[in-house]
Amino acid sequence: MGKALVCMLLALPLAVACQVPDPDRSQEIAIRSEPLLVPVVALKRIVDSLSIAPDSIRLHVDKKSRLFHVMAGTQVLKSYPCVLGENPVGDKFMQGDRKTPEGSFTFRDKYPHREWHKFVWIDHPNAESWKRFRERKRTKAIPENARIGGEIGIHGVPDGMDHWIIQGSDWTWGCIALRNADLDEIYPFIKPRTTTITIVP
Questions:
Q1: Domain holding 194: CATH number?
Q2: Cα–Cα distance, 133 to 112 (Å, whole number)
Q3: By C-alpha distance, which of 125, 106, 93, 132 is closest to 191?
Q4: What Å distances lie between residue 66 and 53, 57, 61, 62, 166, CA to CA?
């Protein structure tokens, strides 16, 4: 297969993947019976087809658009819909605010999860998180007895509940949630202490 054809086949599903379904149409999406005409290309196939070194892959979450991008350098390889903490706007200030933190992080660990399919533990709080936290205490933006919080990660949903993501309503306590099949695609490319994730407003 020629490079031009490979690129054309890869570009079609990427364009589709970047479109977030309208929450008001979630019922219509759920009952649609006809198959989609554009094939969805697996992330591994994209990586292999473009001869991308797995170690060069990084993750980027755009909170405003609710899109989770898998990238190599500045190139977006594939995008997935995601949802965030119940209070999605702004950086995480402290434990219990149910905000998704912003900044650049690595990962501490990853493992199967009984309730959430899989869990990928983000390295929050990191040094930058602690710096911001102490400054917010100093300026009294948060109470003196506030705690920084932790256990922030990427996870899936209970079996059969992918519509929690498609509907686009934020419901986590600060984590980033994906459809289970999407998380399965991304999971092998995440290397604890090596892969980076950037979360932007």
A1: 2.40.440.10
A2: 30
A3: 106
A4: 26, 20, 7, 6, 10
Q: For 23-59, b where at least 16 C-beta lie within 10 A, e where not — what string?
A: eeeeeeeeeeeeeeeeeebebeebbeeeebeeeebbb
Low-confidence ranges of the chain (pLDDT < 70): 1-39
Cβ-Cβ contacts under 8 Å for 175 (sequence gap 6 or more): 85, 100, 152, 153, 154, 155
**For 25-53, how does the pLDDT look when each residue is reduced to its tens digit (9 = 90+)?**
333 333 233 333 446 899 999 999 999 99
Domain with 38 in it: 3-200
Report strand pairing: 107-113 vs 153-155: unpaired
Which residues, 6+ apart, have CB-to-CB distance to 94 below 8 Å? Answer: 133, 136, 142, 143, 146, 147, 148, 149
Q: Could you tell me the CA-to-CA distances from 4 to 9, 16, 19 in Å, in that order?
A: 9, 19, 24
Do 77 and 65 meet the contact criterion of CB atoms below 8 Å apart?
no
Asked whether the beta carbons of 101 and 126 are under 8 A apart, the reply is: no
User: Is residue 163 within 8 Å of residue 30, measured between CB atoms?
Assistant: yes
127-143 pLDDT, tens digit each = 999 999 999 999 999 99
The pLDDT assigned to 123 comes to 96
Domains in the chain, number:
1
Other CB atoms within a 10 A radius of the CB of residue 79 amount to: 22
pLDDT at 39: 60
